[in-house]
Amino acid sequence: MHRVHLTYTLQGREDGQRDLHHPLMALLAAVHDQGSISAAARALSLSYRHVWGELKRWEIEFDQTLVSWVKGQPAVLSPFGEKLLWAERRAQARLAPQVEALRSELEQAFAIAFDDSAGVITLSASHDDALPLLRQLAQRERGLHLDIQFTGSVNALAALNEGRCLLAGFHALTESPPRSPTARTYRPLLRPGRHKLISFAQRTQGLIVAAGNPLQINALTDLKRRGLRFVQRDRGAGTRVVLEELLVAQKISPASIAALERSEPSHRAAAEAVASGGADATFGIEAAANTRGLGFVPLAREHYFLVALQPSLEHPHVRALLDLLRSPAWRAQLNALPGYCANRSGEVLSLRRVLPWWSYRTPKG
Question: What is the pLDDT of residue 116?
Fold first, then answer.
């Protein structure tokens, strides 16, 4: 059994390296993508001798072949090498929310150590690809640190209501009927006058499928096919609520979909399950499919909100964040993400107007 030891580095700027990085996995990924050891070495800016030597060293360590090749033919990962690479990628994707939270806490600690006047905003939020980008920009442009704890939309709003964070992030379809899954889930957690919605982004959600969509999964009804493997999101996730909403609208019973027993905690993890061949389809954001080079079938446009309790809007750090969300720099960055739109980002919105299913009276039935 090989043990895992974690370390972290401090640096003044982003270099594009993943948060959890192992040199062997980078070598395997490069060989897999490039088709030869020499091309892999060039892609990693390493010498052929170094790459060759490291692969042989790890083969001795594992007592397993990692790369197979025949003279004149492309190099390919051995079955063990493929299994190792996909297992690491899946673990990385599943752990991404926790790793992001850990990095956020460490950055907050060092930000305060170097500048005790640094502003800190605690944010409990549904996982989103844009929030880490906002954290970087807020630190650089406003001296604000976003202490982000990723969780499901329901848990994020509960954390706000219990006073465990200053802001919460959740996402939903806004044009939902009063008795919809969206209304039933979020109505008990939001109150006009007490909660204030802040427009953050619009995102495209849809089916994430294998590259080229070989199984021709083009609609929700296709998920009912016998033998099709669909990976679901965890209960309490906003994306699961969106999917249930779309299924109800098309009169499709969730029980009719052959979902795998396991569920995934984030868009990245669900997309990785498809990329690794462990599932045929999942439901998530376009950016997650794009990152892994997967196919995407758009089905819905949703709104991602930040939520504050009414008095918090006057908090100086929240006001600074709202100003940043309205800035051209942030809107340009957000619009560059696949499937994202910065329409009205930073605007404080009317809860009743944006969420027409909300009312003081809970519908009967």
Answer: 58
Going by C-beta distance under 8 Å and a sequence separation of 6 or more, which residues neighbour residue 67? 31, 37, 55, 75, 76, 77, 78, 81
* Predicted pLDDT of residue 84: 83
Confidence of residue 11 (pLDDT cuts 50, 70, 90): low
Q: How far apart are CA 136 and CA 134, in angstroms?
A: 5
Q: What pLDDT, on the 0 to 100 scale, is given for residue 313?
A: 95
What's the fold here for domain 90-354? D-Maltodextrin-Binding Protein; domain 2 (3.40.190)
**Which of the given ranges, 36-40, 125-129, 306-310, has the highest pLDDT on average?**
306-310
Number of CB atoms found within 10 A of residue 117's CB: 7
Residues 6+ apart with CB under 8 A from 171: 126, 128, 153, 203, 238, 239, 242, 302, 303, 304, 305
E strand residue ranges, the chain: 67-68, 76-77, 119-126, 144-151, 167-172, 195-209, 230-233, 259-264, 281-285, 295-309, 340-341, 348-349
Q: Is the pLDDT of residue 166 over 70?
A: yes
pLDDT average, residue stretch 318-331: 96
Report whether 85 contacts 29 (CB < 8 A).
yes
Class of domain 23-77: mainly alpha
Sequence ranges of the domains in the chain: 23-77, 90-354
